[in-house]
Amino acid sequence: MSLEPAAAWMAVAPVEADSLLFAEALSSPDARGDRAWTNGSDTVRSVHVVYRSRDEPADLLGGLGPVAPDSLVIQERLVGPLPSSGRILRQAVVSTPDGPILVWYWYRSGGIEASTALERRFLQLRAFFNRTRQAEAIALVSSCQPRACDIAARALFELGSELQE
Predict the structure, then answer these.
(1) I need a surface site. Which of 20, 71, 126, 163 has the fewest CB within 10 A?
(2) pLDDT tens across 52-72, in order?
(3) CA–CA gap between residue 129 and residue 95 (Å, rounded)
(4) Which DSSP symbol is given to 98?
C-alpha cells in the first residue's frame, strides 16, 4: 500500500493528512497510509485510504466520497497524463484554515484507476459484477501560496511522475 518516489525525493517523518481530505472515507477506513517526502525545497504529503467494509461492492467507490467538501473546493480540473505512468488525475485547490492546498487525487478499484465521475461509475458497476471488495482513494498534497499554486503544482508533477507503487 505504499507509494515510493525516485531517489531525488526523501521520505520525512510520517504526517497525518488534513482531516478534511476524503472525510467520509477517513471515518472508518480499513487501512490508511499518510506519508511525506521532500526534495530539499518542497514537501509533498500523500494520503492513501483503503476501504473494504461495504456490504455491496458497488458502494465502495461511492463510500469514498469527494476529496473535500464542495464548500472548500476553490477550483477543480483534470491533470495529466503523467509521463511515467500515463495516469490522469483530478486536481483541486482546497481552502483550509492554514491556507490553500493543491491536491492531486484519483480512485482505484480492482487495480483500475479512475479520475472522473463517469469512470468512478463504471468502476462501481464493474465492482458489482466482479464482486470487488476493495476501493482506494489516493491523494498527493502540497501547500499553495495565496493565489498561486504554481510551485505546488511543479512539486506534485515532479513527485507524481516518479511514484512507483
Answers:
(1) 71
(2) 755 554 555 555 667 788 888
(3) 38
(4) T
Nearest-5° Cα angle at 80, 52 to 77: 75
Spacing of C-alpha 84 from chain mean position: 17
Cell of 111: 487495480
What pTM, to 2 d.p., does this model score? 0.77
Task: Write out pLDDT tens, residues 6-24.
Answer: 557 787 876 665 666 766 6
Q: Which residues pair with 78 in a beta bridge?
A: 90
Nearest 5°: phi and psi at 115? -125, -20
DSSP for residue 110: T
Whether residue 102 contacts residue 153, with contact meaning beta carbons closer than 8 Å, is answered with yes
The C-alpha torsion from 139 through 145 and 147 to 151, rounded to 10°, is: -70
CA distance 103 to 144: 10
Residues 6 or more apart whose CB falls under 8 angstroms from that of 133 comprise 52, 57, 60
Q: Give the pairing type, strands 101-109 and 31-38.
A: unpaired
Q: What is the pLDDT of residue 57?
A: 47
CA angle 22, 75, 84 (to 5 degrees): 70
